[in-house]
Structure formats: structure tokens, C-alpha cells
Amino acid sequence: MLTNRSDLADLTYFLAIARHRNFRLAGLELGVSASGLSHALKGLETRLGVRLLNRTNRSVTLTAAGEGLRDAVTDPFGQIAQAIEGLNQYRAAPTGRIRLNVVAEAASLLLAPVLPVFIERYPDIELHIAARDQMTDITDGGFDAGIRYGGTVPEDMITQRLSADLRWIVAGAPSYLDRMGTPESPEDLQQHQCLGVRLGDDRIYRWEFEGPEGEFAVTVPDRIVLDDGRAMLSTARSGAGLTYGLKSSFQPYVERGELRYVLEDWSTVGPGYYIYYSSRRQVPTGLKLLIDLVRELRPLGL
Fold first, then answer.
1. Which of 170, 237, 155, 181 lies closest to 208 in space, CA to CA?
2. What's the pLDDT at 91?
3. What is the sign, positive or negative, of the torsion defined by CA atoms of 12, 18, 19, 25?
């Protein structure tokens, strides 16, 4: 029978592993080493007298007993977490930890400008940000919320807009444009070196433009394909090719003369950033405060 505090901690560890199916990722969520989690799970299995996980070098899966235990304790542990979160209304200063899964550029363009104010106002709230462009199920990943472009958010989530619409544009380094010339229309891109964008679902992005007849997309020649915005910027600034992205990301480099805008008259506007979270969970106080602060400071307009 489970009776002590270590049993409750081990069940928390078990639920994190069940969500991630990975000891390292579960450890990152909990702040515990993978070896520590493995040791705790072995102890839990010994006390229960059943195997909960099947572990190999490549995968972690739940046994039938593990699935049954996960289903039985998930809701009670969620209710405990909500009860503890509810105590924030009685504290002089809110506490807790918020985990966000954020599209990479939103971390630098939207969140970075507000974080100094956030940590000054709420010093007892921890904020863990996973900045990645791959689509992630925030519920299965153990995240409190995610931030994505409008139109890419799962339909069963509650959403709130955090920015104005975003302008997408082509840019290139002066060294590249002096060497290869400046395209005058999107059709001219076929004679240029372009940096391909690999999306989170592994598709290669078709550059989008807006002309007299409306919006359209172009498949560009892309001998170099990247899936990281920082690498894309560095490669473009080195003169390797034209790049496509958010005007807000390019602006500091344009002001320093490291990039120039290209095809400005053809640039297009897309949906801004939205935060989303499950409708089945109580919204943590820290998340509400972060949303309010972003909407107060409006780093990308609103």
C-alpha cells in the first residue's frame, strides 16, 4: 500500500514519464536527472509488485498495468495541482512554475521584451520556455500553454491573441545583392539563390506574396534548407542567399546595414501570435499574469 511522501513523488515521476515516454524529457520537466527517475521508478515497481514500463534503448512504453495506473491517478493528481494553484489567491505574491511551448521567433520577438518586467513583478514564479518550431501536443508534453501563429492552433484549445498581424518579407545581405542583383518581382527569384525554410511538419515552405490579384505562393530554388531561424539569419547575413521571414526579425539587421529588404511591394501580412491552452484545465495564476503583461506591453502591437 502507498502511504508515504516518497510514494506520491514517485507517482508524479511516473505520470511525467507516461506523458513524455522519455526519461530525459520527463526529467527536464521535473528538474530531476534521468538516472534519478529510473531509480525512483524501479523502487515504485518493486513496492507495487508489477512492471509499469517497458524500457529499451530506443523506447519507453507503458505496460497494461502502467496504463491502468496512469488512467486512475491522472485526474486526482490534476485536482491536487489545481487545489494548490488555487492557494495563490491567498498569497501576498503568486508562486508556481509555468511551462510554455513557443514557436522559436515568438520567444525572442514577443516574450523576451516582457520577461524583465515579469520577473521583477513576480519574483516567485518560474517560467520554463521550450522554443521550438516543431508542432507539439502541449497536453501530452506537460505544458501549461503554447504560442503559435494564428491558424496553426489546434481547434479544441482556448486561444487569446498576443500580437498584431505580422508582415512577411524577403531580405538579403548587401554583399549578395551587389553580386547577384536585386529581384524586381517574385518571378525573378528563380534566378537567385534562396534559403529554403523547413516547417515543423517537415514540409518545405513556399514563399508567400501579395500582388494586384491577391495572395499567391512561390516555390523558390533552395540549395540550402534550414529549420532554425537563427541559422537562417546568420546564413543570409553572410551573403549565401535571400531569406524569407518576419519583418520584425529582420528589422535590427536592416538598421545596422547587414540586410536589405527585397520585394517590399510584394510583402504579405499573416496572422499574429496566439497563446492557447486546454479548456479542460484551470488556468494557472502565473499564466494569466503573463498573458496580461504581454497584452499590456504589446511588444508586437495588438
1. 170
2. 66
3. positive
